[in-house]
Amino acid sequence: MKAIIYHEFGDIDVLRYEDVPVPEINDDEVLIRVRSVSLNHLDHLQRRVPILPGFSLPHIPGMDVAGDVERVGGRVERVHPGDRVVINPSINCQRCVRCVKGQDNYCVSLKVLGGNIDGGFAEFVKAPATHVYRLPDHLSYDVAACMPTVYVTAWHALVDRARLRVGEDVLIHAAGSGVSMAAIQIAKLCGARVIATAGTEYKVERAKQLGADVAINYTRDDFLDVVRQVTNGKGVEVVLDHVGPATWEKSVLSLAARGRLVYCGTTTGTRASIDLPQTYHWGITFIGSDGFTLAEFEDVFALFVQGKFQPVIDTILPLERAAEAQRRMAERKIFGKVILHPDGSDRPL
């Protein structure tokens, strides 16, 4: 089969479009013909340096996959050849103590499809049957491939970790990213008022179309000043930040008394500082957003099936143009998700 693979760390030019063996499945696994796979920042970041434990080279990226069941293992009853499916990329054992307690995001043998095991930038991919979900007819491959990482990550951060409530104000950075695209929609579903930031007027308008009540072009306006203005000096109850040091200090200052800053990414660096008196005098809470659980994946998938979310697809490209897709992401020239098709098409599927 054809796949995008890299044998060494480096810039985009380490990506290769090569022939590799079709994965072999065991009795509990499913072989899936990939129809649509979406990009995530991890695909780009981990091409340069290993991030997830257990990562090894060579590696096929691609976390968010939708496709058709090609073949099933001998003990698989959950799905059948020909079924249209999406994969939960956070693969846990479902047997260890943490999994049994519902803390499967801390599974002792946790694997991430396309993260530390080979993923979906290929014509075929394998996954445990327990992590494969049938798609209803009305849900397209491309829409399904937008869901797993960004929507469930945003749901976990806002709903489970930050406990976002009806009537609260939430500041969401980098509205053009996949996680923030999802977070805007999730926050509106929760009944919050959304203040979003973006780096161009085009992205500001797209954020408003997604549901942002206020959208700020941070290259023109100071987002802290705007937050204070639109909240009458109160600040926001919640900030969702996956940018890191570039926004950290003003994110803290944007918070209301006893506000919560939930963070789940570090695209501008891994170190940030805080003013301790500022944070303890105002009762600020810092919340690290860890990995999502199997139950959360199923909750968000159910909402997708109900049509509660509408992902934005920026670009569809043939799989062999994955390097171009990663370049567009690195240059922040996208709003929403970039989709790759192993069949070589650039039409919606």
- What is the annotated CATH architecture of the largest domain? Alpha-Beta Complex
**Given the helix and strand composition, which structural class is it?**
alpha/beta
CATH class of the largest domain: Alpha Beta
Number of structural units classed as domains: 2
Low-confidence stretches: none
Outline the structure in words.
- With 349 residues, the chain is an alpha/beta fold.
- The chain has 2 domains: 177 residues, Alpha-Beta Complex (Quinone Oxidoreductase, Chain A, domain 1), CATH 3.90.180.10; 138 residues, Rossmann fold.
- It is built from 11 helices and 17 strands.
- The strands form 4 sheets. Strands 3, 4, 5, 8, 9, 16 and 17 form a 7-stranded mixed β-sheet that branches. A 6-stranded parallel β-sheet has the order 12-11-10-13-14-15, with helices on both faces. The chain has a two-stranded antiparallel sheet with strand order 1-2.
- α4 crosses α5 and α4 crosses α10.
- It is globular and about 60 Å long.
- The protein starts with a strand and ends in an 8-residue tail after the last strand.
